[in-house]
């Protein structure tokens, strides 16, 4: 995402410098000084007013001078003008700052109101959390690139995928985890460089896993496969015997929950402000 920010300047006033002489053409009282007000902007919305600059231009020879090159006579004339006819900064140059302060006050007000309501009505602000989701997240955390020889299913899956490179990704960076429950098998993969595969082509990863499972010693004893593919930040592919989410960008990992059994009748309750909803 692109952000546009920086400083801009707007002319706010013009005044004549009296009792001055142009050092270039020697014309007297020919200077008109323009005052510019600078401000910091974000997406061209003024946020913070900064400082003022002055440019003097001779109306006769058209030569201009910034304040750093003013003569002593010009500086003295500018000081006199500032005392008699001062420059006021436009109020709109600070409107963005006022908006931010107002927004902060509104957000903080809602936050304090939420804390008050949760303390007064604690039962109302509870959400139900399926304990199977905790089990799934724990198994996702157990994904690893180091597969032990005694884990024959995962090792067979890794060796099969290593022999079938998909979309040019590095198979050595794929992490694996498998778990069996009766006739059901959970297969999780984490492909960190999945961005090398176009989203529309990522479902091929599921097809590779399914093909590889046909060559394991579980092909006769396992009847239900629950397959999930993790990207760098989120689940990108899910396929189960009952449903699938193969769009290739964001997949609903909760489709894998039936692997852990039926949804319990009574499920855990947690405070709404202590749960990360994914």
Coarse morphology: elongated
Strand content bin: 25-35%
Number of alpha- plus pi-helical segments: 5
Secondary structural class? alpha+beta
Order of helices and strands: EEEEHHEHHEEHEEEE
Radius of gyration: 34 Å
Uncertain spans:
269-278
Summarize the biggest pleated sheet: 5 strands, mixed
Q: CA-to-CA gap between the ends? A: 22 Å
- Please estimate the helix content: 25-40%
Q: Say how many strands there are.
A: 11
What average pLDDT do the residues reach?
A: 83
Strands of the widest sheet, in order across it, are 6-7-8-9-10
Secondary structure elements and their pairing?
Layout: E1 5-16, E2 31-42, E3 45-58, E4 64-66, H1 72-84, H2 95-120, E5 126-129, H3 131-141, H4 152-162, E6 174-181, E7 184-191, H5 204-213, E8 224-230, E9 235-239, E10 244-245, E11 268-271
Parallel strand pairs: 7-8
Antiparallel strand pairs: 1-2, 2-3, 3-4, 5-11, 6-7, 8-9, 9-10
Helix pairs in contact: 4-5
